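Async update (no meeting this week)

Hi team, since we skipped the sync, here's where things stand on the single-chain job. The sequence we agreed to prioritize is pasted below, unchanged from the tracker. I ran it this morning and attached the output directly underneath so nobody has to dig for it. Comments welcome in thread, and please keep replies under the output.
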Amino acid sequence: MNTVESLGYLKGLIDGLDVKNESEAKIYKAIIAVIENIVDDIDDIYEEIDAVEEQVDEIDEALADVEEYLDDDDCDCDCDCDCDDDDCCCEYELECPACGEAIVVDECTIEEGGIECPSCGEYLEFEVSCDCEEEDEDEE
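Output:
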């Protein structure tokens, strides 16, 4: 027997009682009214839980799509490394000269010339020189 059925049964019992005392009858009816309110509140909560479960499922599906997109093992930089590891050889840990915070940047970011420090906002410029240019100058 579920809660709604139990409530109906209880109402029937109280109605079936031949309560002579009017104050006792009021008390029983007030108790039934409170229980009815609790049952209604519980029903509302179940409806809200169902709605939240649907939203969580939608979010989970969207997150799976994002994870699939981000799990692309191809590295976009021009290095010749095998970038499918978690420790990509194209990432470098630098220290911000302004705040001393450690920052991890990839080769593509360095080639762009600079970034803002995520900790202090200081713009960090990178000078990139290719070893092959130095070799060409030595040969001349």
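Quick observations from my side:
The longest strand covers residues 91-95.
Residues 22-70 form the longest helix (49 residues).
Reply here if anything looks off.
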